[in-house]
Amino acid sequence: MAEKTENLTEKGKVVMRDRKFFENRELSWILFDHRILGEARDRSNPLFERLKFLSITASNLDEFFMVRVASIKDMVNAGYTKKDIAGMTPKTQLSEISKAIHELVQLQYSTWGRSLNPQLLRDGLHVVAHHEDLSKEEGAFVDQYFRENVYPVLTPMAVDSSRPFPLIRNKTLNIGAMVRKKKKNSELEFVTVQVPSVLSRVVELPAKEGEIKRVILLEEIIERNISQLFLNYTIECAHPFRIMRNADLTIEEDEAEDLLKEIEKQIKKRQWGECIRLEVEQGMDKGLLSILKKELSISDGFIYEIDGPLDLTVLMKLYGLEGFDAFKTPKYEPKMVPELPAGCNVFDEIRKGDILMQHPYQTFEPVVDFIRQAAVDPKVLAIKQTLYRVSGNSPIIAALAQAAENGKQVTVLVELKARFDEENNIVWAKKLEQAGCHVIYGLVGLKTHSKITLVVRREENGIQRYVHLGTGNYNDATAKLYTDIGLLTCSETVGEDATAVFNMLSGYSEPLVWNKLTLAPLWLKDKFLYLIDREKRYAQEGRKAHIIAKMNSLCDPDVITALYEASAAGVKIELIVRGICCLRVGIPGVSENITVRSIVGNFLEHARIFYFENDEHPEVYCSSADWMPRNLERRVEILFPVDRPELKEELRHILDVQLADTVKASILKPDGTYEKVDGRGKKAVLAQDVFCKEAAKKVKAAKAKDQGEKRTFTPKFKQ
Question: Which residues are tagged catalytic?
Answer without folding.
Answer: 449
